[in-house]
UniProtKB/TrEMBL annotation:
Its EC number is 1.2.4.1. Its cofactor is thiamine diphosphate. PANTHER family: PYRUVATE DEHYDROGENASE E1 COMPONENT SUBUNIT ALPHA (PTHR11516:SF60), PYRUVATE DEHYDROGENASE E1 COMPONENT, ALPHA SUBUNIT BACTERIAL AND ORGANELLAR (PTHR11516). InterPro entries: DH_E1, PDH_E1_Alpha_Subunit, Pyrv_DH_E1_asu_subgrp-y, THDP-binding. This is Pyruvate dehydrogenase E1 component subunit alpha. It holds the Pfam family E1_dh.
Length: 410
């Protein structure tokens, strides 16, 4: 863009030399032409341009029993704009969930993901929908990444039947079978063994796909994780164990709960890779590397160095075990959305005004989803007994006295 501006100015000077136009007039001419060019396209550069270019990854990968991928990644204008759009929608969605919880539209547990968006979005950039994902209870944005909608998330949070789990799962149990997203799981660390099972099924069925089992640093000491790693290594299962290390398991800092907080090394005999989880392009590159490894050599552990802005859940203010200065410092220095914003502006792909318009669109999308979800109906009473057992077994469900309430399961 800068070179184009210089050429435009040179052209204007050449065409106006005979009239000896003043420099200020030439600048106004060039500025006017630039304004018309930007206005006609809506962006300073084509945001849908898929021409690849290479970007350096600033924070080095750290490898365990493997050679890390190179510190350069290929991207495009379209991909970066899409990253910004999706991450900003996720951020607005989680902020809206915060407000809805405080207004008591959302009840029960609610774990927000704002700050960690680069992990979800970067992973999806390296995967296909044939790959499977299973995670813990901080799962709202993962559902979006797997092809779900904001409405499905908001409706589920408010217990509406238009939710992704028909209003019966709530915050911790998002689900999208079509997108190979197997939830939202409330038992700490239990999803890691299920992830190994998904990978076993993929290998048994000879699918060219991998499974990602996500867990937090708080779950990294759970026994079932090591059992799952062991069987996965024995059978060379195509599974990627992803530790989203946001540095606090509930209110406990990692250094207080783990003798060795280098979670990417925890697999011992299983190779590992540490990734800057606040850099969406670093995540994309790292997960692409991990997928190739899992398909050809078996399991691998990824540690995503990330950060959550909210507390562990909505019942946790998040400021009793860390300082507000720490939180604001991460926002200023490492925020994943701001990193993409700066890259888009530095590459002159968009203007500040363009990004403002994208932000307005994201806010409008979330606001509309919230309003639609509020108007949705709650599940019928009989739905409490569906999706519990396999259909057709002619089983009866009994109430506490086994007399008054007897319901045949469908």
């Amino acid at each position: 863009m800068a070179r184009w501006r210089q050429r435009l100015l040179s052209s204007a000077c050449s065409s106006s030399s005979s009239s000896a136009a003043a420099p200020q007039a030439l600048l106004r001419l060039a500025s006017s032409a630039l304004s018309r060019q930007s206005s006609s396209r809506g962006f300073a550069a084509a945001p849908d341009d898929t021409t690849p270019f290479v970007v350096d990854i600033p924070v080095p990968y750290a490898g365990h029993r493997c050679d890390p991928p190179e510190q350069r990644v290929e991207t495009s204008a379209k991909e970066l704009v899409d990253f910004f759009k999706v991450m900003y929608v996720m951020r607005r969605m989680e902020i809206a969930a915060d407000s809805l919880y405080k207004a008591k539209f959302i009840r029960g547990f609610c774990h927000l993901y704002d700050g960690q968006e680069a992990v979800c979005v970067g992973m999806e950039a390296a995967l296909t929908k044939e790959d499977a994902i299973i995670t813990a209870y901080r799962d709202h944005c993962t559902h979006i990444g797997r092809g779900g909608t904001v409405l499905e998330v908001m409706a589920e949070l408010m217990g509406r039947k238009s939710g992704c789990s028909l209003g019966k799962g709530g915050s911790m149990h998002m689900y999208n079978k079509e997108g190979n997203f197997y939830g939202g799981n409330g038992i700490v660390g239990a999803q890691t063994a299920l992830g190994a099972g998904l990978a076993f099924a993929q290998k048994y069925n000879k699918q060219n796909a991998v499974s990602l089992a996500l867990y937090g640093d708080g779950a990294a000491n759970q026994g079932q994780l090591f059992e799952a790693m062991n069987i996965s290594a024995l059978w060379d299962l195509p599974v990627i164990f992803v530790c989203e290390n946001n540095h606090y398991g509930m209110g406990t800092a990692e250094w207080r709960s783990a003798k060795s907080p280098e979670y990417y090394k925890r697999g011992d005999y299983v190779p590992g890779l540490k990734i800057d989880g606040m850099d969406v392009l670093a995540v994309k590159q790292g997960v692409r590397f991990a997928k190739e490894h899992a398909l050809t050599k078996g399991p691998i552990v990824l540690e995503m160095d990330t950060y959550r802005y909210h507390g562990h859940s909505m019942s946790d203010p998040g400021s009793t075990y860390r300082t507000r200065e720490e939180i604001s410092g991460v926002r200023q220095e490492r925020d994943p959305i701001e990193r993409v914003r700066k890259l888009l502006l530095a590459k002159e792909i968009v203007t500040v005004a363009d990004l403002k318009n994208l932000e307005k669109q994201a806010k409008a999308e979330v606001d509309e989803a919230v309003n639609q979800a509020k108007e949705g109906g709650q599940p019928e009473t009989h739905e409490l007994f569906t999706h519990v057992h396999v259909k057709g077994l002619k089983q009866l469900a009994y109430g506490p006295d086994r007399k008054e309430v007897i319901v045949p399961l469908p």
